[in-house]
Amino acid sequence: MVEHADIRVVHRGGSKINFRAPVISDDSRLLLCASGECVKVYSTSTEECVHHLRAHTDVVTGVVLRPSNHLQVYSCSMDGTIRLWDFTDAILIKMFHLVAVHLQQSTEQLVEARELSVVISHVSSNPAAIAFGRAGEYLASTKGLQLEVFFLKKQKSNRFSLKEENKKGRKNTFSCVTCHPTDDCIATGHEDGQIRLWRNFSHKKEYTYSTLHWHHTTVGSLCFTPEGTNLLSGGVESVLVQWRYNQDTQRDFLPRLGAAITHVTVSPDGTLFTTTHSDNKITIIRSGAKVSAVIQGLVKGESIETDLLIDPRSKALVMNGKPGHLQFYSLQRDKLMYNLDIVQQEYIYQSDLQQFEVVKAAFNSSGNWLATVEREQKDAELELNLKLWAFDDQTQSFVLNTTISAPHENRITALCFSPATDSQTTTVLVSSSKDGHFKAWQLAAHTEDEGPCWSCDFVGAYHGLVPSCCCFSADGSLLAVSFQEVVTVWSSASWELLTTLSQPPGDIRDLCFGQLSCSKYLLGTSTSNLLLCWNLLTCSLEWSTSMDISLLLADPLSENMAAFSSFSSLLSVFVFKPSEPRPIFSQKAVCSGKVMRAVFAPREEMLESCEESSQWLNRCQLYFLSQHMVNSSAAGSAQPNALIGSHQSLVAMTPFHLLLGKRPSLLQTPAHVLPSTSYLCSMFVRSLLISVTDNRSVTQYSYSTNTHSSAFTGFILHGSQNCPFVVNLFSGAERCLRKL
Amino acid sequence: MASFKPTKIHVYPKLGEKVTQDTLYWKNYKAPIQIKQFGAVSNVAFSPVAPYNFAVTAFTRIHIYGPFSQEPIKSFTRFKDTAYSGRFRSDGQLLVAGCEDSVVRLFDVGGKTALRMFKGHTKAVHLTDFTSDRYQIVTGSDDYSCRLWDIPNATELNTYREHTDYIRCGVTSKLNRDLFITGSYDHTVKLFDVRTDKSVMTMDHEQPVESLLLYPSEGLLVSAGGRFVKVWDLLKQGQPLVSLRNHHKTVTCLCLSKNGERLLSASLDRHVKVYNTTNYKVVHNFDYPASILSLALAPYDESIVVGMTNSVLSIKHKKSPSESKDSTSQQRRRPSYRMFVKGKNYIPKQDDFLVGKQVKEHLAKHDKQLKKFNVSKALDTALESWTRRRKPEVTVAVIKELNRRGTLKNALAGRDEQELSRILNFLIGNLVDARFTLVLVTPAEMILDIYRSIIGQSPVIDRQLLRLHELLERELDYQRELLEVLGMLDTLFASSLPRNAVECSGISGLVLRFVEREQCSETEIYQ
């Protein structure tokens, strides 16, 4: 059989690890956390990912240890299943399907007697808002301004409401809840930063609460240590506060943990604390209040303003991550390598505070120099800094060389280095700004004792128009700067305006030169949905096509260019050579949503492939960052910014592949090359059967979410073995599965 | 747990001259010793032999000073009129001097009366020098002639009448006894060869020549006249190499430093400029209180002697190595080295259990307060008088950091009169500094906003606000004028790219905006 090359889009990582609170194994050696469609098992001492528990087909929404066997773990997912795993060996033991439960919209609490019972009907979708009390005797749930405690033995519930706003105009809304492991005490966190400790709540009237106050905004998470001696709390201040139980004045702080704390958990033996942060990070803290390990995923800021870059030296993906930092992310290992502190300022954790953001970054072709632009927008004042970093071989990191404050008077729209053809020629950095100028910066030996630093070499403008993007030709001799509708071509040696190219109407949006043999072509896209290709030898338009291109980029290692087109909200990719009118590869409906950023990442070793349609992927892989919603169900588990990579898989052409992968092609294939019909038939039927069950489970799940709100997206399993609630739930699920 | 990142203090480019090796070298002289002479000091010449005495020609006297004494060790006073050009012979035994009365006198350094008197010139003799064989004298006079005299016989050997104006300077070759060069007010420099009886080379300086200097290799000749210093290549038939125009008045004297690497020129514009002799760039500059007539450098640059028109002789001696070190050792005595390495060089034994100690990070005072979020205290520490005066950039950085945190208003509010006047003082001192304007406008606006209601209650604050107002109005006028000048320049340079017209407009716009607000609140004060 011939080897067949197939191009498909795969999710390459960068998924959230801070979606739900992690779980620590009983021996405190492993940490489990939900990450996208799988559960990741990390070592708490080495920070390495030990196993991936992969089987779920949708986002995993909760992980919990099995109380009866400390080597097994349950996980639940948006695909409507709960799975039981042996996490030390990454083996799937059991799978349960959740089924739809028809709820009558009435206040009665028991729907199906004995097996499945609804105890609290009005629950928050946040898993932190539900907690089991001491030895599973009661269940506390908060929503809005109401705390509801359900006593499982007495089958009755008490409700406590707070006033909407207290005297000082603070918000009393509940944000999280936790219960003391040995005492009858419920701790609740509130949006004004207060923590209330509720006692005597078995009585409807005589309940009491005391208040702890340190946080200045919402308490993000609360947790009692297993013995109940300490209460841990964290919030947006990124300070872990440790309160002594019953000694309200005493508290310890662990400040500057890096980002807002979303979850706090304690290991079963109480030796480890973990804090999960909003920047996709899990910090493991020994009980001596020392950070012992940090598990860091890909940081997804609100917007990827720096674009995706490839560090030419380490081949790492570079983009802005934590506020004021650039992150270097290894694509091969799906691991954050390090963060480079660009702004070098103390980060103040406060909402509605304008921070310095890294908005542009560029590497030169050898990776020796990194240029970054940081911006602070405060009211009308704009503060810009252009920083140039030199790679230091000794420390293997970037060292600040030059800071240029206020390089332009307005926002910088583009930043690029000239490609160095040999080591002698000095690299030139070009920045273009909305103030109507573009500036060339050059490395100049300033004084004997200080070493070389960067200074402005040339300021260019064209009829007062605003430059939008700039680009150097492959040999570095030409600089193309687009000024609205006009593309100007400058000589980088003498800074003379050589020629102007224009194709109205529509402003130029993207601009890039062809590579290698196509270096005489200059390509651009315009806002009037045109893809334009100019020939620089004749200074005329070679070809143009009408197409809504959202992103255009050139492969640095070949002549190929990739264009992303978002036609009718479905994304298509085209790969073409500027010299040939026919695209090499095109795929429609790669994913839904808009592609924000993309980059060609060179492969470590070149692939040998003869298939014409996939040759463009021999040298490099195309990565793109999409802004699509994975699931639009009521649970609100949207997964923005999933990092998706396209890669090529080599699959042997087996009949199985023929059947499952390309079912329509069965009809076109000549009969003499196919296996016997009886063999094929059973497989064909079986494949159809699988797909049917798949569909069923999904529909059931969506139905259940509709009726049952989202109580199961984050379910809680209590430590006591004979907890009737959970057992009922599972038995019901299994029974339904049997009915299927 | 990340450590606290201290406030970033912006490093502003230092204004003024850059410190180079040359600056350090030429600054390494003591304060000048000033000796009053009887008249303008027309010539200073060093003896070529130790202890390097120097002869100072001023009015009718020639004084010889030792290297350290401030009193002359010898004086020659037997001149009937103004003496000129007292120079030592290469063995330091004889001294020759011209005179206004046209007689050239030769003295023994030890004696008092003239050994020889050479009579023959008809007008004042400004140039006298020994040839390198030590037995002849070259003189040049205002009668347009230069003559060669024999010392033993006291006879005139030859007369050269090629110049057409006063001869005021000249130099003899140290390597060849037959060559000498004269410079004249007829704008020419002539090289004479005794063997040919006439000049062999003529160079046109284009200005009356005031001083001549030969390089030690004698391949290059330097001439000074008018505002120009010109360098000639003698080996290429007197081809001009460089023309330097760094003075704005007549250059009167030239001199070379010890190894010929630096050339010094003194001028009537009261400056001495030091040139690098490889690229002829000015590397250092000395200022003197009066027009300089004469300049000499002791061998090994041990001292710089300058004679001025106000009849003051200024002598600068080089600092001895111990003295130059003194300035640094006078600083506070630091704890000894032993104190710092105490216990650090202990090598742990095999069974020892090492207990790590956390290194305590050092934070500046204001950073300690910022770490604790004590914003008012942070501003207070940054406004301490030493920081405020010596390092305003620290104060500005703290204000900027507070502004970034959004707590500047809190830090400024709730001040009493004394504290507020301290802040206002700082603003008055630094608001118009172009480096700080952008940052300081914000707190100034905030103070006006916060304390608007109490204006009129304290005379101190009101006075300071009025001063601030005055200062800003003046600054505004400057900016307007500058913009006008800029506009004029722009029209002049209309053809070239408008590169230099970027910086000012931003700041002035800001100041304008601020002053408008300021004026609003000022009207309230007046009301």
Would you mind describing this structure in some detail?
- The complex is a heterodimer of chains A (740) and B (527).
- Chain A has 740 residues and is mainly beta.
- Chain A contains four helices and 52 strands.
- In chain A, a hairpin with a 4-residue loop joins strand 44 and strand 45 (540-546).
- The longest helix of chain A has 31 residues, at 677-707.
- Chain A starts with a strand and ends with a helix.
- Chain B is an alpha+beta fold.
- In chain B, 28% of the residues lie in helices and 31% in strands.
- In chain B, the strands form seven sheets. Chain B has a four-stranded antiparallel beta sheet, with no helix packed on it. In chain B, strands 2-3-4-5 form a four-stranded antiparallel beta sheet, with no helix packed on it. In chain B, strands 6-7-8-9 form a four-stranded antiparallel beta sheet, with no helix packed on it.
- Chain B is elongated, with a radius of gyration of 34 Å.
- Chain B starts with 20 loop residues before the first helix and ends with a helix.
- Classes of the chains: A mainly beta (740), B alpha+beta (527).
- Chains A and B meet through loops of A and helix 7 of B.
Main β sheet profile of chain A: 4 strands, antiparallel
* Strand-pairing-aware structural class of chain B: alpha+beta
Helical content class of chain B = 25-40%
Biggest interface goes to: A-B, 23 and 21 residues
Helix/strand/pairing class of chain A, anyone?
Answer: mainly beta
Care to count the β-strands of chain A? Answer: 52
Radius of gyration of chain A, in angstroms, nearest whole number = 30 Å
Number of helices of chain B: 12
- Rounded mean pLDDT of chain A is 75
* Span between termini of chain A: 39 Å
How does the overall form of chain B come out from the CA principal axes? elongated
Mean pLDDT of chain B: 85
Question: In terms of per-residue confidence, which ranges of chain B show pLDDT below 50 for 5 or more consecutive residues?
Answer: 498-512, 522-527
Strand order of the largest sheet of chain A: 1-52-51-50
The whole-angstrom Rg of chain B is: 34 Å
Give the tally of β-strands of chain B: 28
Strand content of chain B: 25-35%
Low-confidence stretches of chain A: 1-5, 103-114, 628-665, 690-740
- What amount of the residues of chain A lies in strands? over 45%
* Order of the strands making up the biggest sheet of chain B: 1-28-27-26
